Amino acid sequence: MNGLRSAIGFLTILPLAPSRTNGSMASARGWFPLVGLMIGVILVSIEFLLLLFLGLPEAGWHGFTLLSAVTFSHYTPSTLLWAALIVLIVIVLTRALHLDGFMDSCDALLGGFDRERRLEILRDPHVGAFAVIGVVFLLLLKMVAVADLPVAWLPPTGPIRVTILLLFPCLSRWAMLLTMELYPYARSNGLGTAFFSGDRGRFSRHLIFGFVFTLAVSVALAGVVGIILLAAACVVAWTVGAWATRLLGGVTGDIFGGVNEITEVVVLLLALRLIDSSSFAIQSPLFELFRSGTQ
User: Fold this and answer.
1) Rounded-to-integer distance, Cα 182 and Cα 178, Å
2) Does residue 40 lie within any of the structural domains?
3) CB atoms within 10 A of CB 62
4) pLDDT at position 227, please?
5) What phi and psi, each to the nearest 5 degrees, are found at residue 185?
6) DSSP 8-state symbol, 154
7) Cis amide prior to 57 (ω within 30 degrees)
8) Is residue 95 assigned to a domain?
9) Which own/partner pairs from 119-124 qualify as long-range (CB within 8 Å, at least 24 positions apart)?
């Protein structure tokens, strides 16, 4: 299980990484979607505890009235403040690792003029205008998307907010794994090289395991909508990876972080669009099974 521990230690602030890697970083990438789901579970748990601590209505699985005191149909200062807190929790849980990669990717892919200069920018610890503009818009989009998530248990659609908060970190980590498997690494050294020893390719065991796990989680939590969101995450991984490979000759650790951040925003925004559509509704087999078992 060193691979799982390495994935947790690398992707989160949790001190679970093994003292000796012995190639465990290469096997860690297959566990990325599971770690993403763990981040979602932690996020939902923290939100649940904070709401109880702040004295909001008592929780109940049958009515799911925990969040009923908050109305998200119109933005209010308290709504946006709460959404900002949720986004901040995700950043803290991940040590802003992916956010840093996204900022570096913005500077390199948008500000460089040739491959050598772009790779040099990726190594530069300073941030430029593209990074600042990009991260501001990214965080604003995340905050508004989280603020706009429905919050009550809405039969027969289930707990939409909980479902999306669980799912979007899982899908974004799957997108990172897919990018790793589809595209070559741009440099002979760097933080991301630790993940590239061992088997790679379109049908590696890490890719198969990650896909099966992510598909199962997506269907269990969101049904057909989960499959659509999974497809969107794949499109982001393919698109950003292809763009970076064209400009850099491959991908880097910063590109992986950028893929993660962009996928989170795309999944959140697409989920909101599907929720608002009369043609789609989140049907959660897992939550429906839980509800039927408690009745």
Assistant:
1) 6
2) yes
3) 9
4) 96
5) -85, 140
6) E
7) no
8) no
9) 119/186, 119/187, 119/248, 119/252, 122/252, 122/254
Whether residue 94 is contained in a domain is answered as no
CB 182 within 8 A of CB 237: yes
pLDDT tens column, 153-170 = 444 445 788 899 999 999
Domain range for 37 is 2-70+151-294
Phi, psi of 230 (to 5 degrees): -65, -40
Copy the structure tokens of residue 201: 């390719």
Number of domains in the chain: 1
Task: Look at the block and give the residue holding tokens 């589809």.
Answer: 182
The one-letter code for the residue type at 107 is D
Domain membership flag for residue 76: no
Highest mean pLDDT among 49-58, 70-79, 134-143: 134-143
Q: Which amino acid is at 198?
A: G
Integer angstrom CA distances of residue 49 from 39, 77, 148: 15, 21, 20
The residues pairing with 251 across neighbouring beta strands, listed in sequence order, are 185
For residue 290, pLDDT beyond 80:
no
